[in-house]
Amino acid sequence: MSRPIIAYFATLAAFCVLDFIWLGFVARGFYQAQVGSLLLDPPKWAVAGVFYALYVVGIVVFAVQPALDAASWQKAMLLGGLFARRFRCSLSRSTAHQSVLQRTEERSDSHAQLLT
Q: Which of 2, 8, 26, 99 is least enclosed, having the fewest CB within 10 Å?
């Protein structure tokens, strides 16, 4: 198997495990308290899957592969941090909201009143 494919699946596995720990245990109570009434049940798994697939491609292209080529974990940290800062501010926020939050018009009147 080629190096980029191995890097993709290794990064995907690490990302999924870390995100599962974060969302399932570390920050679960916080999210439930802050946006629990706005969460979809069930989430839109296809949208979440597209986000994970694209985000991991970005991590590999912009951080993992350049760091492997340079044999530098420092480069991985720097490029990964820069990528996460820019990418998470746009695509991840949008897709995360689409996959787990109700649309404004789908919320009950009480939820809409809280937002006004």
A: 2
